[in-house]
Design brief:
2 copies of one chain form a homodimer.
Chain A (H helix, E strand, L loop, with lengths): L8 E4 L5 H11 L3 E6 L27 H10 L3 E5 L5 H12 L3 E4 L5 H5 L3 H7 L4 E6 L14 H8 L1 H4 L14 H24 L4 E5 H19 L19 E5 L4 E5 L4 H8 L13 H6 L1 H12 L4 H10 L4 E2 L4 H4 L3 H5 L3 E4 L6 E4 L4 E2 L17 H7 L4 H9 L4
Parallel strand pairs in A: 1-2, 1-4, 2-3, 4-5, 5-6
Antiparallel strand pairs in A: 7-8, 8-9, 10-11
Helix pairs in contact in A: 1-8, 6-9, 8-9
């Protein structure tokens, strides 16, 4: 056996990112993830997607550039069936699928699945040992039950924008969908726990996660620090990377660009390379408290010294002294970096519109490795195959198509 | 049975954050995580930690403020044994522990565990079905094998600082240890897969992850977009939260503070509430392409309108129209938010120095819920208990203590 989640079937109602990223992680591990789509849903499939230097994504000109990158990034290794859930015959297909399923994953707003008859109670009637995962914006109940749940809203409500604020105090969203990601990762971890428990005992259960909880859990040490000291994080300067670590810890200007210095524990060696008086012996900076208090002064001294050479020159001098430093990479540099390529973090899969590049799998299992096996499916690509697997005949499938059920 | 990872024993050599956050996630699920510490390691335990409004963390004045918050945030629900691994009798303790263990987790630099005899091959000799997880900075081999691996360095090398750059082009570290977190979460997910596989087949294996891979995987849709278009993300203005979503999508100034508007799909309704001419019909903004091109102009118009009322006034008006908006929360507001409290995301545990507050568990399992059962251990708190559990007598334990092995 070489597949981790062999014979695990996941019925995936999830949309956008929080749910799909979680189920993609399980698809990477070999689970059969069946994505339930609505027939003729716009912006759901690959066929009309064009990609190229012009960034012209999307099924048609009305679709946003981003929608389809989102779809493509979170649905590899999955199968797609297009079913009209508003028709009884469509819901019958889902009921048959659930009989043989192990996991349901959904991230509709609270209430939607109940109306369809596929909430946890409904699914349990069909399959008592089902694992039922719900991912929402704020939680399955509570005061925010009716608030729209979305990545940026969760970032600001959960504290990310405060922690990531600029030196001028302007709160900043983190430049990608990090709250969606946190909800996905903690949710996937919860489902893995539930799968492990079911493997041992046969018992299924409900798993719940949401963007808000994921955001707060991700603050981890920041949250713990605040909760026990009452001190709000604050970034004094644009270069400073973390409010609770003493300078130098951040991204500094050089003569021709930027350099990252993560060497708050090596101040004497840094001073030597910079050819400036030893900062560690300067009374303004001789303790963590003083370095914190006089951060802006110290950063000014360091950037003045750094302005004398290029990033490349500094990196060479500093790495020789084992200082913790790095350049700042653009994405083009990231994705041509020799270690990134060595680690297999760029993969290419065939898709109906040509080769599609995507980031690789970040963890490696030596005996049952996760793998990228297929591109994100086109809308309803596996409808026939899936219907046959749950006992529909060719004739029945033809009828379902004529009736616009699939 | 109410514990997900009942009877799972994890021998945890990990330090700082990437490893400890991962093993804490499994400790929350009920695994017995035994933290291997060196005797008299500074900054490792609670006893000398003071916390209060002065932010004075640390075992002694030389410790940084941050070290101990890091320890406290990532080691709840664990046991601690202090063992001198340089002594043969110390290594013998580890060998006995490994006999009954299920998982080893370590994040030393490549090579350290080999020298101790506890690399995967060494551990397999003692326990052939062991799951062996290694977390490093850049990978277990490859060109960066000797580079120091650390959160900020991984953030800049993996693209986070580029994606999070300010509008002035200054790359910015994300204000907390997000690369450590990504390595931890993907690593924990990998180990859960390995545990599931072992439960089915009896077979153990190696699991590998690192900060760089976690960072790149987390870029997900950003990475996919770049890899297939060659377009670097770029934040035009401080308010703009994501380079690939059209305005309005970000954090804007109001008369008395900030408001988050995530309503790029509701431009007409927004214009109405703002009492300005319909932006969706303005030829400068009538397509996604134009809204992207003329972003700065549109943001100026919106902020001008927003300056007429307070955040509270705008929220009331906009929520009435179902616009996707939110205030920007400080951490004090986050941790007094009614939904955050409703979700159980602030917990308090007793510790030797008094009650310790920490963020709660972000996912909920209905039948085998993860729980915070105990505060991070003091250094070597469970040494006697653990030694007894692997067969050492009181007399032998006394001898080990006299010889400074434990």
């Amino acid at each position: 056996m070489t597949i981790t989640l062999e014979n695990i079937r996941i019925v995936d109602f999830s949309i956008m990112m929080q749910g799909p990223h979680a189920t993609q992680m399980m698809a990477d591990m070999g689970a059969e993830v069946i994505k339930i789509e609505r027939p003729r849903l716009p912006a759901a499939g690959l066929p009309d997607v064009r990609y190229g230097k012009n960034g012209n994504y999307g099924r048609d000109p009305e679709d946003s550039v981003f929608m389809s990158a989102t779809y493509l990034a979170h649905n590899r290794n999955k199968k797609s069936i297009a079913v009209d859930l508003k028709q009884e015959k469509g819901r019958e297909i889902i009921r048959r699928l659930l009989k043989d399923a192990d996991v349901v994953y959904q991230n509709f707003r609270p209430g939607v699945m109940t109306r369809l008859g596929f909430d946890y109670a409904g699914c349990c009637k069909i399959n008592p040992s089902i694992i039922y995962a719900s991912a929402s914006g704020w939680g399955k109940d509570g005061p925010y039950i009716n608030k729209p749940g979305q990545d940026l809203l969760a970032q600001v409500m959960g504290g990310f924008a405060a922690v990531n604020a600029g030196a001028d105090g302007h709160p900043m969203g983190i430049g990608f969908s990090i709250s969606d990601l946190m909800g996905a990762l903690y949710g996937a971890f919860g489902v893995m726990g539930a799968l492990y428990h079911r493997q041992r005992t046969g018992e299924g259960q409900e798993v719940e996660t949401n963007l808000l909880n994921g955001t707060i859990a991700a603050l981890s040490e920041m949250a713990l620090h605040y909760l026990n000291t009452g001190i709000e994080p604050r970034r004094d300067t644009p270069m400073h990377a973390c409010p609770f670590l003493p300078t130098p810890y951040g991204i500094y200007k050089t003569r021709d660009g930027y350099i990252t210095i993560s060497s708050c524990h090596m101040l004497s060696q840094l001073s030597e390379v910079l050819e400036i008086p030893n900062l560690a012996e300067d009374p303004r900076f001789d303790s963590d408290q003083n370095r914190d208090k006089n951060r802006v002064q110290m950063e000014k001294i360091i950037e003045e010294a750094l302005s004398r050479k290029t990033t490349g020159e500094w990196l060479e001098l500093m790495e020789k002294e084992d200082l913790w430093v790095a350049p700042v990479r653009s994405l083009s540099e990231v994705f041509s970096d020799p270690q990134v390529l060595h680690n297999g973090m760029v993969e290419t899969v065939d898709s109906p519109v040509g080769p599609l590049k995507m980031p690789g799998i970040p963890y490696k299992l030596s005996k049952t490795p996760a793998k990228i096996r297929s591109a994100p499916p086109t809308l309803g690509q596996h409808t026939d195959e899936i219907l046959k697997s749950i006992g529909y005949s060719d004739k029945e499938i033809g009828n379902l198509k004529r009736e616009d059920v699939v």
